[in-house]
Structure formats: structure tokens, C-alpha cells
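Exercise: predict the fold of this chain.
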Amino acid sequence: MEHFDYIIAGGGCAGRSLAVRLLPYLQATNKRALLVDYAEKKSNDRTWCFWEQDPDVFEPAVYRKWKQLSFASKFLDRELDIQPYQYKMIRGLDFYAHTDQLLANQPQLIHLQGKVERQYTEKDQACVVIDGKTFSSDYVFSSIPQVQEKKPDRYQYFLQHFEGWVIETEGNTFDPESATLMDFNTSQQAGTSFVYVLPLSANRALVEYTIFSKQELAPEDYSAALQQYIREQLKCEQYTIIEHEHGVIPMTDHPIKRQQERIIYLGTAGGFTKGSTGYTFRFIQKNTAAIVQQLMKSGHPNIPAISSPRFELYDATLLHLLDSERISGEEIFSRMFKKNSAMKILKFLDNESSLLEELQIFSTLQKTEFAMALWNRTLKLIRSN
């Protein structure tokens, strides 16, 4: 049985982020890691968007960035000054190519293509079975989703599902300096729905239709919504679809185990997708950076939570309020952006705000509805015990 100091199971965003951050530590300590993934990453299969103040290690992979955002709904139409943040976009293809380059020809990191069939802890080792062959390690870092039994009597389960088109128009349709964070000028019948527009040039942009609901739509429904938005909101009749993407992100308050003995979970599998928004990229970076920092400090990767538990309560309350349908997501987000600075909201959504800042934001929202949602969620937890 071949032994590695660490095994990274899953070569997506979380696995590769950890591998890149881990590499200097491996080189300094003469340790070895195995990165295993089922398939080669050679396609532009997804897009990550996030905001940050200072460039991080993946800045070379950033495809576009914007200093100005906009928000639109039937309640509010506003340009958002997001300083000191920048809103950034990384395409999957660029991220994979960049990390391949950083990790290539590194004797401390072995890259293996194969299917992870099993992960388990045995005595003081973590083991992974890959295509029938067992490898051992001190720790396994896994982004392979855990199987969890749903408990709808206790927790909320939503999906953030989306269809995005990169379109090219005949004229100069877009302002390359400003992106649309949320535009609720689309049908809300399927659930909280909005479109975001990320201009890549004056005549090319990613236009993405996003829905918060409990089930996906039929493929033709996404297409119809995008066609209507492009025609009615962008005032564009002639365009070519260059690329398209579809995805589903879980939004839930169901607790997720972040560690089982010597198996440590990363990314969505470890609960690092924000329950109320679906944003993941920045939480992955904070988590993987903390793991490596802990290894350098103590030699083990066991870290405390990267965010206060109160943010999980906030996310759960919002999901419960959306489920109650007492007020719409459009109303909630419109009030939030109308009454607060964009900088304060982005800091809050990154789980980096102070309690005082959070209380200031809450004071501007629909207090009765949020209080009722919090109370009803508490009753739900009590009754399900």
C-alpha cells in the first residue's frame, strides 16, 4: 500500500485550491501529497464570481473584474459603489489551466486520474480506494459530496439553479466597466429569480438567469427567460450564443460534518457554500488558507470554524422566510441595497461583518417578517427533536 502524507480527493476548485496553497509547505517539509480526480479538467464547465479587496494567489486566473456594479428591481434601480472591493470572474478553463501550470513537475505532488470508490479511517491513517487500489495517508482532504438523509421537518432545502449564455451582439450593447449583480426584472413565478450580466467587452457578456427554488425548471424555461430578458431589458434582437453553462448549487441550513476522524471535507462537501446565496469561491479560499496555516503552525490540519456560527443562523432565517413566501426575495434584497452601502452588504455576505454592523443592517430590513421567520424556525427545530 503506497503511503502519502496527504491525499486530496477531488480535483475541482476546492481540491486544486488546497493543492496550490499546500505546495510550499510540502516543499519546505519534504512531504508528499496525492491529488486524485475522476476526469481531466479541460473544459470551461463553470464560472466563479466573487469580490475581494486585495489580490489573492489566483489573481492571474481572473478573466474580468469590475469596480462598479448595479442592482435593479421594480422597487429600486441603483448603481453600486463597491470600493474597496472589486467584483471578479474566473472561468473554469482558466482556473484549471493556471493550477495545472503551478502544479506541474512538482515531485512533492502526484496527480492521478481515477475514481475514488471509498474513503475511510483505519487506526491512525486515512485510506482511499482508487480504481480498486488502496492508498494510505495521514489525512484525506475530500471534496466528494457526503451522503446525507434529508430532514425536511427540521431543515430547509433550496436549490440555486441557473442557465448562462455568453452572447455576442452586433452593436455595443454593454458597458465593460460595470456589471449587473442582480436584476429582478424577470418573472418571479418560479421562485426568487434574477439575472446578472457580466460584460466581457462592449459587445460580449455572460448573461445568467438564476432561480432560488426547491426544484429545477425544464430546459426550455431557462432559454425562454434568457431570450425575454435579452430582448426586453437589454433591448437586443440580434445576437449569437458563444457559450452556455448550467449549474445547480445547494442552499440549505442542514448541518454538514466538516471532519470525520482523519477525513476533512472541502468546498460544498464541507459546507463552504453559503447557505443563503450559494457563493463558494471565497469561502473555499479562506478555508484552504487556514488549513495550510495550521499545518505550518502545528503540523496538523484541524482548524476552528472560519466564520462565526451566527452567520449560519442568519442564512437559515432567510431560507425559512423565503419558504414562507410572506415576502419575496426581490423585496428583501431591494430593501437591503436601498438602505445600506454596497460595501457593508458585501462584507456581511462574506461573513466578515461585526455584530454591530449586522444589527445596523437588520434594522433596515422587514423586521416583523424576519422575526417571525426566526421564531418559526426555532419552533420547527424544537418540534422535530
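Check your answer against the key: The longest helix spans residues 281-298.
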